Amino acid sequence: QVQLVESGGGLVQTGGSLRLSCAASGLTFSSYTMDWFRQAPGKEREFVAAITRNGITYYEDSVKGRFTISRDNPKNTVYLQMNSLKPEDTAVYYCSADRSSGVSFYSRLRTADQDYWGQGTQVTVSS
What is the pLDDT of residue 102? Predict the structure, then answer.
């Protein structure tokens, strides 16, 4: 049984930082691209960042230079370091796992077409 468990969310002031973690179990972690998505109230879930099994990273434009995704394969954990937070970053943050490769990977990148999802962690940035 695959489980993705996010942690590290909370309330922070504008300009502050948070580090999200996602601990994975029940899958061969090193074989998966790991992603972070977020969903604000009344909005669709949107892509935030991804890190491939080879460590290549992708970011949504609004978080480039502020957020950093990383992974620790021996610990089966992916992280999202979030700096210079803004009120518009307020959302539930979800991690996901994608087993695809090659052409399938590029067709699924930045989409919600993922193999597994966590339950989410709330991030609230106050102005």
Answer: 87
Q: What is the pLDDT along the chain (127 residues), one digit of tens a residue?
A: 999 999 999 999 999 999 999 999 999 999 999 999 999 999 999 999 999 999 999 999 999 999 999 999 999 999 999 999 999 999 999 999 999 988 899 889 989 899 999 999 999 999 9
Q: How far apart are CA 27 and CA 17, in angstroms?
A: 30
Do 34 and 95 meet the contact criterion of CB atoms below 8 Å apart? yes
Q: How far apart are CA 54 and CA 76, in angstroms?
A: 14
Determine the residue type at 6: E
Tokens representing 116 are: 């597994």
Query: To which residue do tokens 């996901």 refer?
Result: 96
Residues 27 and 116 sit within 8 Å (Cβ to Cβ): yes
Q: Residue 110 corresponds to which tokens in the numbers above?
A: 């930045």
Q: Check residue 9 and report its DSSP letter.
A: -
Q: Which helix (H) or strand (E) holds 96?
A: strand 91-98
Q: What is the DSSP letter of 11?
A: E
Q: How many angstroms separate the CA atoms of 17 and 91, rounded?
A: 15
* DSSP structural state of residue 109: T
